[in-house]
Amino acid sequence: xxxxxxxxxxxxxxxxxxxxxxxxxxxxxxxxxxxxxxxxxxxxxxxxxxxxxxxxxxxxxxxxxxxxxxxxxxxxxxxxxxxxxxxxxxxxxxxxxxxxxxxxxxxxxxxxxxxxxxxxxxx
Amino acid sequence: xxxxxxxxxxxxxxxxxxxxxxxxxxxxxxxxxxxxxxxxxxxxxxxxxxxxxxxxxxxxxxxxxxxxxxxxxxxxxxxxxxxxxxxxxxxxxxxxxxxxxxxxxxxxxxxxxxxxxxxxxxxxxxxxxxxxxxxxxxxxxxxxxxxxxxxxxxxxxxxxxxxxxxxxxxxxxxxxxxxxxxxxxxxxxxxxxxxxxxxxxxxxxxxxxxxxxxxxxxxxxxxxxxxxxxxxxxxxxxxxxxxxxxxxxxxxxxxxxxxxxxxxxxxxxxxxxxxxxxxxxxxxxxxxxxxxxxxxxxxxxxxxxxxxxxxxxxxxxxxxxxxxxxxxxxxxxxxxxxxxxxxxxxxxx
Lengths: 123, 349
Prior knowledge:
The structure holds two protein chains of two kinds.
Chain A: H1 2-30, H2 35-51, H3 55-62, H4 64-67, H5 71-88, H6 92-95, H7 102-118
Chain B: E1 5-6, E2 10-12, E3 18-26, H1 28-31, E4 41-42, H2 53-72, E5 81-86, H3 92-98, E6 105-107, H4 114-127, E7 133-140, H5 142-149, E8 165-166, E9 169-176, E10 183-188, H6 203-222, E11 231-234, H7 238-251, E12 260-262, H8 263-266, E13 278-279, H9 281-297, E14 303-311, H10 315-319, E15 326-334
Parallel strand pairs in B: 3-4, 5-6, 5-7, 8-13, 11-12, 11-14
Antiparallel strand pairs in B: 1-2, 2-10, 3-9, 7-9, 10-15, 14-15
Helix pairs in contact in B: 2-3, 6-7
């Protein structure tokens, strides 16, 4: 019974994650926008979905399928703001942005630095 | 005024400056292309034992000028002017390369039309009696240009089929009042043309109208037809731009079908993943220096019209949504004794 539930979880994560990435690929293939546009678009989408309260239900359903793609970064930013606004009011709008997202941001900076220091582009 | 102007935009060189030497060094990918064996040297890797691609471009440019002088058996003090330009900001490759030579220098910018722009200026200087010998040179480097004009090299942007590949390489020619080699007889200086193409990845489409305008103007000025040339060769229109050029000229009842080719199309093999073909200053330069001029010299061509095309955009203007102004400069090069090979571009005092 438990393994059946786990199997369905995997399936949901696979389908939703695949859908998000597939849409991203179509966006790159059929428009003239760059990967940077896609990245920002995904973050904004995640942020909006969180704001209207639809993101948490998707996480409950798809798990890693939605939290692994970059769309989750928008969720994390907005969630931090919403939590902090509830606690601190107006100031939370600023204080909350990186509260949940700081791990992701710091990891990007540190790993980005290491990559740039260690590797040299070839072609 | 002396009668050196033909029609509206074409000039005629009475003294017919001679191209007494030419040299070209290319990158690894160009070396593997169909013209590989013609180049003086092909780099093994794009860094060319330097720290940066910009330094590599500079190093090969200097080396190529040395090679050009060596082939002509001349020292730098015999040269009256250096004329150079490239794609990097403030044309640093040419400016820095020129500091090695104690020769008066003109820095020019014509994007990928720089080679022919430099040859025209050199021919004007010689024909006007302002010097005996000029060297014109230009270069481009795929990785260096890509990160300046588009995105960082690590970025992994998609490569659409209509985008062109900036050639890595450097070409130079030595024009002289006296000596042996193909002669420069006429030039048609292009106007800046902009039909509103905005996609900086689609430079073939942006430049084709400029090439069409210059070719049309040239034929009108001289009263010739395309069939009067063994080859009308455009600089870097690639597959997309070449097709558009033929369509544009067909509308004016000019048929290029048999006598047109494009340096961007002949520099690479179709399986080299270069999109629509080559581009960059080096594209027209290395093909002219290493392939077209020797063929003229051997007498296989009698008269060719080289039309180098340039997209005059900057990264800033494309980010601000501006369209791409383009230019095409044409130069007529002839072998006056087509049945005889005229030596190895040899120089005579």
